[in-house]
């Protein structure tokens, strides 16, 4: 998951550089509307929390570290993102797309609350909804949150009082315990709460870790990360006064908890608050509310467990039935789940000294096999939840997706548990770039993508989650390109120092490592000529030349005439023509990239070039925020004066032979958003709206190579957003 952190840093840097001014462009056909969804992948990022509503069957929420929150409701049959109104192009609210905690109201299930803030150093906010998250009221109390910071798997830090459901409690990282008595409209700090937590990881305060209520008495229990082991405090007078539970396991922290209806507080401990700082040791305890004693009930099943413990959940149908998960247990099988039906006296597990007792079913997202015969159960399982209406169903988030057990009670009788992929509609990825070539007959990929945690995919059909064969797997990528006239040929670069360039000749079924050169650089940019006969690679180094190969990367030659780290684009018609921008100049090659010469055009140092389907010599450029175009192979350019852009790309026209549709992120008429132009930038139409902002936008957009009106754009947490003209 280190890749996710780099992805977030990259997108943050780009976002800070993207202050764009207004322009005079006119809107296009105002009657054209879009429907939005995602390219189907099946997750990809860290789902840090799962929350079932205890009174409305079929209502469940999921929170992610940087990709918003989702709702599962009976009848939807998939996760629906409930935070897409946040962020957007040029928005300063991108940070709210990380959800640190989420609370569902057990009395009025239509009410839901969230504390939002991806990073502690950026503004956070509380969001309140009374219609299941369809609409939100934002409340700013001057507190920051760390949904993608260390310790983000703890919780829930926010909880509705089940006896007085207008009251909501909120634990914070640095500012103690807060409370609202009017459904989240107004908040006050609970001054009576004695501690704020004094343990930090990676320079980030862990603060309040969770809030829980005794389902019988209504007493409140709150946990703070205290180094002396005195972490838990309780109040029987609605927070007016607090009593400390005795110190327990100094040097460990109970990051998850649950209180049973028969009087036990169950606690999962780790020697860190995870997951960035891996835990090496852990325990499971229960505290008797009646006897005021701790009891060590750590599972002993012979699985050679190491690390800590993550989630803990109590079965609503049986208070003695509890499920806990391991945390940072990097066994080859994945994290283990442990189940007790006698309050922790004995445990059964997914795998133990006698073998495995589970089967993974990832039929609907086969890439989760990750090259294995059977996929892992997951990693970073910091939260698990038993469905309060179905004891067989246990749902948990991982660092890559969501899983749900079909028959968890099978462990009781020595049977195997089936664990199914369950991230339908939940797409959290930090996406870098996509390429969509022509794909009319379905024999070539509809889309190539690269992203932070998963490297990338070749998508044969953007509506079908990829299989394992079309999963790139290797390295953190930087660039991807394909041969426009032969789109089964594609290449990507990554941070793999020994094999920085990989190429496929079969549409992504196999990726072959190209010969590495001792350049001192990795990653970098790559370009393939229109028919794939030549490939250019510019390593990510200010000391490395640009190289060209005419044998699929087996042999490399220096591309003459270019400076360091050029931005390259191949002509989409003529395989001999390659264009490049570097050092403030535009260059062109007439021999497939072996030799370049300046065209005479001058551009900014940050210029990116684009070429157009069916138009030889048409070169477009994004120079700063200015869109420029050339019809003479990059010799002369004309500026578009009606748009300020962060990113641009092209897609299929409405009629064969027409000019491709131009898509862009940026601003027109003082309005920020996603735009399209069907007349080469003369007029623009915004195609998203204020309810569809999609969080932290990554500056990359492209249209579909064959489907008119279909557009894709990258996000830093919401996957690949896909738009189609609404019928």
What fraction of the residues are assigned to beta strands by DSSP?
35-45%
Strand adjacency order, main sheet? 30-34-33-32-31
Please tell me what the overall shape is: elongated
Number of helices: 1
Radius of gyration: 27 Å
Explain how this protein is built.
The chain has 727 residues and is mainly beta. The chain is built from one helix and 60 strands. The longest helix is centred in the N-terminal third of the chain and has 15 residues, at 2-16. Residues 1-29 have low confidence and may be disordered.
Which properties best describe this structure?
elongated, 2% helix, mainly beta, disordered N terminus, four-stranded antiparallel sheet, 727 residues, 38% strand
List the helices and strands and how they pair.
Blueprint: H1 2-16, E1 34-38, E2 47-52, E3 60-64, E4 69-72, E5 79-81, E6 99-104, E7 112-116, E8 125-129, E9 137-139, E10 158-160, E11 168-171, E12 177-180, E13 188-189, E14 200-201, E15 204-205, E16 208-213, E17 220-224, E18 232-235, E19 243-244, E20 253-259, E21 264-270, E22 282-288, E23 293-296, E24 308-314, E25 322-327, E26 337-340, E27 348-349, E28 351-352, E29 355-356, E30 358-361, E31 384-387, E32 390-397, E33 402-405, E34 417-421, E35 431-435, E36 447-451, E37 455-459, E38 477-482, E39 490-494, E40 501-504, E41 512-513, E42 525-528, E43 535-538, E44 547-549, E45 557-558, E46 567-570, E47 578-582, E48 585-589, E49 597-602, E50 608-611, E51 619-623, E52 626-630, E53 638-639, E54 644-651, E55 661-668, E56 671-677, E57 685-686, E58 697-703, E59 711-715, E60 720-725
Parallel strand pairs: 30-34
Antiparallel strand pairs: 1-60, 2-3, 3-4, 4-5, 6-7, 7-8, 8-9, 10-11, 11-12, 12-13, 14-15, 16-17, 17-18, 18-19, 20-21, 21-22, 22-23, 24-25, 25-26, 26-27, 28-29, 31-32, 32-33, 33-34, 35-36, 36-37, 38-39, 39-40, 40-41, 42-43, 43-44, 44-45, 46-47, 47-48, 48-49, 50-51, 51-52, 52-53, 54-55, 55-56, ...
